[in-house]
Amino acid sequence: MHSGSGDSVRLRSGSHIAIIGGGPAGSFFALYALHYAHQAGLDLHVTIFEPRDFAQAGPWGCNMCAGLIPLRVLRELTEVGLLIPERVVRQRISHYTLHTAAGRICLPQPDPDGDVISVYRGGGPRCASPWPQPISFDGYLIGAARDRGARVVPERVVAVGLRPRPYVETRQAVYAADLVVLAAGVNRRAIDFHDLCYQPPPRQQMAQTEICLGTEGVQRALGESVHIFLPRDGSLRFGTLVPKGPCFNVSLLGDRLPQGTIARFLALPEVAELLPEGVVRACGCRPRIAVGPARPLFADRFVAVGDAGITRLYKNGIGSALRTARQAAYTAIFHGIAAKDFAAGYGPLCRQIAWDNRAGRFLFAFTRVFQHHQWLTLPHLRSIASEQALPPGERFHSRLLWGMFTGTYSYRGLLAMACYPKLHTSLLRHFLDSLARGETFRHAGASVSLIAPRRGSGIVRGQIHGYPREQPPSVVDK
Predict the structure, then answer these.
(1) Which residues of the chain are in CATH 3.30.70 domains?
(2) CA angle at residue 464 from 458 to 466, to 5 degrees?
(3) Are 378 and 103 spatial neighbours (Cβ–Cβ below 8 Å)?
(4) Domain boundaries for CATH 3.50.50.60 within the chain
(5) Least enclosed by CB within 10 Å: which of 12, 90, 345, 447?
(6) Please, what is the angle between helix 421-436 and helix 374-386, to 10°?
(7) What is the pLDDT of residues 134-144, one digit of tens each?
(8) What is the pLDDT of residue 101?
(9) Quick one: angle between helices 421-436 and 396-406, nearest 10?
(10) How many helices (H) and strands (E) does the chain have?
(11) CB-side exposure of 81: number of CA atoms within 13 Å?
(12) H or E element: which one contains 264?
């Protein structure tokens, strides 16, 4: 996990911190380092190296992210005196809609503290009308860091060295530092590391696009809901449609995403029925996401945070960026910047995230089974619908799915929730009820498909294009 000596090294007034990357992880580190330095009576020089201008619309300002953030993550920024302005919030998400081979269900928020918002990491797609105010989430964060004393250098780092004294090198100059923080994510250009065998995290590819329909068009198509699709196509793990005011984001994650994947996804009947004909894509990208830790995560006078270090599997990467940046900054200011200091102060959080991701892999593996076997899906959907009559604290199935979708809860907490006896009792009851109602199954090769149930099965038929906020969820048989 780390590389370095056993000697302790401390930051002092006048020390220089070089942060590579001005996305959330880099800005969070700068904000917390300056905050903790003020508490410790230190006057530090903090420099963020970021070549992009996040205020620009289109690809140059984009950070290639769906932009869903649990509000509880942003509330933690009150520690450094930050409150995300309303102009940055593109949409408040009131519910999620899950589309499966067996039907779909609208899931309202089961937790009063589980609010989710959508944002643009950059200046938004070019197809939208010019925004009256800056909307970039990343731009707001790096601006806040600059306002609190960080220096922003618009240059790309090409090399990093640690001995005899750390330095970062751009094409224009070489900058000496006392601590180097890698926060550049996994979609950056390669950096040459001297004196350090840094291995970036294992990665998985996504496919993304933005589609602009106008605010009313997006509202008609998606409402205030994120739509999640679990198609039976074996190469696609899931797809999402995320409303963002006049536009919406399309994000696909899969094991194999050949050219044309987005077009095929948009042509799926369950997707096409939501959208008007002839939608035009404003942009497209194929970003990579981290699905494991980098090695090493830290060394003497070096630490990696956010995606460049370790992040939560698939969901809530911005929350992981905040947690890792905050803990690394706290360790650097109050404990030291040697490898042993980071091992003691930062290492436990990294191990906690790694263990939590193991639980996440198990949960997503079950989701794959759920995705391909309709006879498993239907009892789950009915169980979710039936528990809406219960108090919010007892809606375990709803909380489980909400946590999987949003990243609001830890994977270990979700796994414990999945083992709750009442949840399995409900599933068994609905599975037996399906058999009693005359729903039968047939095997076709390796797949299992549901034969249409008899009348009176309790499944609501017909197309549903949206749900009022107050309406309880209902299962729709396709």
Answers:
(1) 203-289
(2) 125
(3) yes
(4) 2-67+132-201+291-356
(5) 12
(6) 110
(7) 899 999 999 99
(8) 79
(9) 100
(10) 13, 26
(11) 8
(12) helix 261-266
Neighbours of 462 (CB within 10 A): 6
- For 421-473, what is each residue's pLDDT tens digit? 888 888 888 888 877 776 544 332 222 223 233 333 333 322 222 323 333 33
SS3 285: strand
**Residue range 52-93, pLDDT digits in tens:** 999 888 888 898 999 999 999 999 999 999 999 999 999 999
Query: 81: how many CB neighbours lie within 10 A of its CB?
Result: 10
- Total number of residues shown for the chain: 478
Give the per-residue pLDDT at 7.
60
To 5 degrees, how large is the angle CA 202–CA 178–CA 353? 30
| Confidence tier at 298 by pLDDT (50, 70, 90) | very high
Q: Tell me if 117 sits within 8 A of 272, measured CB to CB.
A: no
State which amino acid sits at residue 317: G
Q: What are phi and psi of 101, to 5 degrees?
A: -65, -25
CA dist 279 and 393 (Å) reads 40
Residue 342's nearest CA partner among 77, 19, 48, 11 is 11
CATH 3.30.390 fits 203-289, yes or no: no
- Tokens representing residue 54 in the block: 């996040």
Q: Hey, how many other C-beta atoms are within 10 angstroms of the C-beta on 358?
A: 12
Task: Classify domain 2-67+132-201+291-356 at the CATH topology level.
Answer: FAD/NAD(P)-binding domain (3.50.50)
Amino acid at 407: G
The C-alpha angle with vertex 159 and arms to 156 and 162, in degrees rounded to 5, equals 130
Q: Which amino acid is at 15?
A: S
Q: What is the DSSP letter of 376?
A: H
CB 407, CB 315: distance < 8 Å: yes
| Continuous segment of H or E residues that includes residue 28 | helix 24-40
CB contact at 8 A, 73 and 319: yes
